[in-house]
Specification:
- The structure is a single chain.
- With about 90 residues, the chain is an alpha+beta fold.
- The chain has one domain: 2-Layer Sandwich (Alpha-Beta Plaits).
- Strand 2 and strand 3 form a beta hairpin.
- The longest helix has 10 residues.
- The N and C termini lie close together (about 10 Å).
Length: about 90
């Protein structure tokens, strides 16, 4: 079985005031397990003082693993839309 490397853009929830993107980034880093190798998490500027979290993660190329990881990220308070920026096999 191969490995997949994915890059996500985690946008703040527009309905939550003062989203703590640094807190979101810290929680995503703590999601690293044997299945999900969270390699890098960066807080980047979006627009008008808003920020987003960019996540680089490696996982096995198994059915449903990417969806499960996205589901875990979406449960974090302040997380809005999650977008896949890139995906590739390694």
């Amino acid at each position: 079985m191969g490995m997949v490397v994915m890059t996500y853009k985690v946008n703040p929830d527009s309905e939550v005031e003062e989203v703590d993107t640094d807190g979101i980034a810290a929680q995503i880093i703590n999601m690293a397990t044997e299945i999900y190798d969270v390699q890098k998490v960066e807080v980047k500027p979006l627009a008008f003082g808003l920020k987003f979290v960019q996540v680089h993660v490696t996982m096995n190329d198994g059915e449903g693993l990417a969806d499960a990881f996205e589901g875990q990220m979406s449960e974090i308070h302040g997380v809005g839309e999650i977008e896949v920026l890139s995906m590739g096999l390694i």
